[in-house]
Amino acid sequence: MLNKFSVLLPIILAASLTQTVFAKDEAASVKKSCLKDYPLAVGDTDQEIIGFYNQLCDKKNKKNENLKNEIFVDIAKKYQANGYNLKALQAVNLLREKNYQSPELTDVTFLAGIAISYNALNHMRSNENRTLDEQTYSPAKVLSDNIRYIQPTIDKSTSTAADVREKSAESTSNVKSKQTTPAKKRTNTASTKPKQTTTVASKKKTTTTAKPQTTVKKPAASGSPFDTLKNK
Questions:
Q1: How far apart are CA 28 and CA 50, in angstroms?
Q2: CB 78, CB 49: distance < 8 Å
Q3: Are residues 55 and 71 in contact, defined by beta-carbon separation less than 8 angstroms?
Q4: Going residue by residue through the chain (232 aa), what tens digit of pLDDT does each one get?
């Protein structure tokens, strides 16, 4: 029994491996008839892209041009997202040959062109050890200026939400400060009240001392020289 099991085990493993490999090859392949219609799909291994091509070549979708264009836009976007920028531009050109235009195609063209330029710039700096010259710098500067002119604006909803948060934070801080300030005002009023009483007391003292001086001076002024003659 053990000998039979040891002989059958490698056969079972080999059969299972061949089945999995065959399933992978079948899943990761585009139909030959589809490759004739879309040679751009040759060499593709991404399952999502292969699924898009199989949808294009499906008999149900062959007459639906709008659906086929939308699927091919998804293919171009997927090419660009995976880093196949040249294939993305080729897909865009195939759609434009059919007079199909959309903002998504423009975005794919822009992003693919930026990625290609960025890779060339890194190759220039790291491998060739050189900088841009007058011929290459001027169009790069024009592109940079144009990007600056059409840069995205700030979303008003996010800005208003941020303003509300800032205002709420300021209001809470003001409430906390108001709760702490009354104690300080009480101490200040308590310290100022004794000063007012002292000033009033000093004023009263000065007025009372002035009255005896006036009463003393009046008898001396009312006396006449004839009073002395009467006494004699």
A1: 7
A2: yes
A3: yes
A4: 555 555 555 566 665 555 544 444 455 588 888 999 999 999 999 999 999 999 999 999 988 999 999 999 999 999 999 999 999 999 999 999 999 999 999 999 999 999 999 999 999 999 999 999 999 999 999 999 999 999 988 765 655 555 666 666 666 655 555 555 554 545 454 444 545 544 444 444 444 455 555 444 444 444 555 555 545 4
Q: Which amino acid is at 21?
A: V
Rounded distance between C-alpha atoms, residue 75 and residue 88, angstroms: 8
Tally the C-alpha atoms within 13 A of residue 127's C-alpha that lie toward its C-beta: 6
Phi and psi, residue 68, nearest 5°: -65, -40
> Does residue 153 sit in helix, strand or coil?
coil
